[in-house]
Design brief:
377 residues, Alpha-Beta Plaits, D-Maltodextrin-Binding Protein, domain 2, 3 domains, five-stranded mixed beta sheet, 15 strands
Length: 377
């Protein structure tokens, strides 16, 4: 056979496969109707395993398992779409869409980590022009303030373009009850601040939060015989410098902290890369989905087996959904177990997206829908 004849044979086989897939999906409608009447869940791992053991044999067993894994995923998504009104997640999303006001609030009580002058405060002020800010020393306390209802919203840094993810926030997300309602991508401009009248060559110690120190590592290397110490927050470091009797102490923070705490800017723009951005998320206790929301975040764990992540990513690709972020974090106390965090471009207004989310919520016990929101600059 020449190449054209081989391709014609493949085309004929593909046509048969497509015809059989369409036939199978028509039969799935009957399965969905039965499950609707009986209240049966969409996922049936036992049944899927029975099919795999029956059909996946011979030299191409591994490829058949991958193919049928994708078929099962498509079948569950289709059933979830047909059973949309019965799915708890779909009902929660529908309620959020119905109850969320048309405009994002201008005024709110907001929890931020750090003290006055922190980058979280700057992010907050851009999202909420009339904000009453409550400051907390730890990220954990920001989550708790929102969970308890003490604050309507909370602002948390999630990742930096130069330094990477804020691991502590990601780890806390796994155990907290919250919803992402907006995010903001903010340019981060670092400066070195010290007491009034102090010169750069007098500095003996520099303090700041670890990510900020990492973002300014090249500049800090130029300071000879200077101790570098991690601190809880950039603005808190500036406040500490202002109150300390030590004239040799300096802080890496925003230049705006100089006005807040009566300090001098010894050097400005000290970050390694001027293209230095941090992404902050705004969280609430209750789901809120505002008009124009085009980014979705979720988290889930996957079975520790070949192809599980591949099949999941393939489902996003099949729907034309662009993944913006995929982060994995180890689950404490469980060997080789990971929690995966996904950010992708999409809206729950799209019924295909709702079907995917509904299926994931049914088939994965650790699945958490974190929110559908808009990211602003």
């Amino acid at each position: 056979m020449n190449l054209e004849e081989i391709r014609n044979a493949i085309d004929a086989a593909d046509d048969q496969i497509a015809e059989l897939i369409n036939k199978r999906m028509d039969i799935v409608k009957n399965v969905a109707e039965y499950k609707k009447q009986t209240g049966t869940g969409v996922a049936d791992k036992k049944r899927e395993m029975e099919i795999l053991n029956r059909v996946c044999k011979g030299d191409n067993e591994d490829y058949l398992r991958l193919l049928f894994g994708a078929i099962f995923d498509s079948s569950r998504s289709y059933q979830s779409w047909l059973l949309d009104n019965k799915n708890p997640l779909s009902e929660r999303i529908a309620a959020a869409l119905a109850e969320t006001p048309a405009l994002f609030p201008r005024k709110a009580i907001v929890a931020c980590q750090g003290v006055e002058g922190a980058f979280s405060q700057q992010a907050c002020n851009r999202l909420f022009p009339v904000a009453s800010i409550m400051y907390f020393s730890e990220f954990n306390h920001v989550f708790k303030a929102v969970e308890s209802g003490l604050c309507a919203y909370g602002i948390l840094p999630l990742e930096n373009s130069s330094y990477g993810s804020v691991g502590e926030v990601y780890d806390l997300m796994r155990t907290k009850n919250f919803n992402i309602v907006r995010s903001i991508r903010m340019h981060i401009h670092h400066a070195l601040l010290a007491k009034k009248g102090v010169k750069l060559d007098e500095i003996t110690e520099v303090i700041s939060i670890e990510p900020a120190l990492g973002q300014c590592s090249e500049f800090l290397k130029t300071l000879k015989d200077v101790k570098i110490t991690a601190f809880e927050n950039t603005a808190a470091a500036a406040e500490y410098v202002a109150k300390s009797p030590d004239r040799g102490l300096a802080a890496v923070c925003s230049a705006t902290c100089a006005d807040y705490y009566g300090l001098d800017v010894l050097s400005d723009g000290i970050q390694n890369n001027d293209n230095n951005y941090t992404r902050f998320i705004c969280i609430s206790k209750k789901p809120e989905i505002y008009p124009g929301s085009n980014r979705i975040s979720l988290m889930l764990s996957l079975p520790h087996e070949t192809g599980s992540l591949y099949r999941l990513v393939g489902r996003f690709a099949a729907l034309g959904l662009n993944l913006n972020k995929l982060e994995s974090r180890t689950i404490a106390g469980k060997d080789f177990s990971f929690m995966f965090y996904f950010d992708f471009e999409g809206s729950v207004v799209d019924e295909r997206v709702r079907a995917l989310l509904a299926d994931l919520s049914e088939s994965n016990h650790s699945f958490v829908f974190l929110g559908n929101y808009l990211e602003v600059n």
